[in-house]
User: What shape does this take?
Amino acid sequence: MCGIVGYIGNREIKSRLIEGLRELEYRGYDSAGIAVMREGRIESFKAVGKLSNLEEKTKDFSTKGPGLGIGHTRWATHGKPTELNAHPHMGEYSYVVHNGIIENYREIKEMLEKRGITFLSQTDTEVIVHLFELEAERYEDLFLAFKATIEQLDGAYAVLLITQKAPDTIFFARKGSPMIIGRSGSGEIFFASSDAPLIGEADEVAYMDDGTVGFVTSETLHAEPDSLCFVPLQGDKMTAQKGGYRFFMEKEIYEQYEVMSDTMIGRVLDEDIAFEEIDDAFVDGITRIKICACGTSYHAALTSSYLFERLSKIPVNVEIASEFRYKEPLLTDDTLFIVISQSGETADTLEALRMAKEAGLKTLAVCNVDNSSIVRMADATILTRAGIEKGVASTKAFATQVMVLWMLSLYFAKRRRSMEHDAIKDELRFMSYVPKVLQKSLEVHEKCKRLSKRYLHGHGFFFIGRDIFYPLALEGALKLKEISYLHAEGYPAGEMKHGPIALADAELFTIALMPKTLLYEKTKSNVEELSARDSTILSISPEMFDLADDFILTHPHNHPMLEFFEMMIVEQLLSMEIAIRLGNDVDMPRNLAKSVTVE
Ligand code: F6R
Assistant: This one.
């Protein structure tokens, strides 16, 4: 979703802003813009489409010496992706960039229009800059004018504003949308919507609390409330780059066996699961679990519902966050409310969490981004430790979510005594094999590349599986449709005969997940039913299957979760190779955003 950057310092401003925005490209955007203060005057540039268009437009523009600027990548919400709607939005002498949604913008706009102000864009954002200039007529102190502006906004926002009346200052405010401020040893100031643009630039950063409003110059930093707490910024630029892979998605698929070890370290012990983040008291009195999430994170949740019920014997109910929030759910205080989110900023999941908190439930987040809004709101968080995920289509974040949830189900099993000690030990042993299995699974990449050429057409894909392989089928279908733009659906294998089988013919591709350790014969009969109707079958299994047109042979394992993780890699690689052959940008698929901060 939209990205914000800001910079104060001595280096060339335009390049700093565009480089910062490039680091935020993974969030998804359809236009971009910058506003730069040069000799007390602001110059602004905007372009629809990729950042290269903005670069082309600004190729003859540069700055020398100290200065400042703000930049933005926009993912359209109010108004089409046009240049006029792109940020920064301007008033008479000020410019603003904004992430989030101003819910009461219509009322403010009407009031401003009555005062003769003309609007150029269809956005909610534009009201901020005009309101500020109106307040600046009332208050001599521009910070007071900015504060008065922010106080009138309802909704979610991260805002940066610059004005020719204070050419050395950036005004900032944050509520509900993420924003980080960073500074370097040489006195430069940076703003960004996530860590990525700051890595290698800022030495320390402060994650702004909701409700923060302030201003900064190269000499002064003022924030209200005075809660900015600077901490050293970890990570280096290289890890955030592609490292020789064609796409971030590919790199992230290949990283999975390493990040999985990080996810497990200090947590998967010989005889127990240990989470620093929660203790026995946290799960005391819990007799049921409710999980809310969206998209891929929802698929991780659904997978875990089988694990929780099977291993911990605790009833689990899983809901899509956008459905949950409007259904007037019945919540009881013996329920542990878990939210799962890669970004920690998904608006629907955040709202579901807020509702659970308001109902007095214990809440737990499984999240990949520390200090994100969801992490801040939940009572406790287990971080998935997948590292920055840049590909819009989630891969390693999903893998680590499933792992954390599997660990959590064992954690509950031990505390609820639902499994024998030796059975827990066995499960832990299998768990410890996962990184190796993930590494070995990558051997199938060449086969996926070769097979992909046969799957570029047809009228649809069905990914089918049973038990935990059903959510994995859903995830396979989502991965494929996100990046290939081909129609794909995930289905429980046993459900096909209740309707979807009517679609079966040679142009319907069935991707059959056929693990040997779980319901093999049952799944096989469902695949036979499809094969009898001439559907083209690609079977993913450790066992050859006569009736399949194609097969990807997986390694034999003796635990369903090991088969699960291997098949997950096959799905990811296959989808990626199909999308690459179709000429798509797999890291930034059309219409999608990495961080979905609107409902
Ligand atoms: C798909 C994908 C999305 C996200 C969904 C929720 O590859 O990434 O479906 O899973 O938008 O996002 P998070 O996990 O950040 O809450």
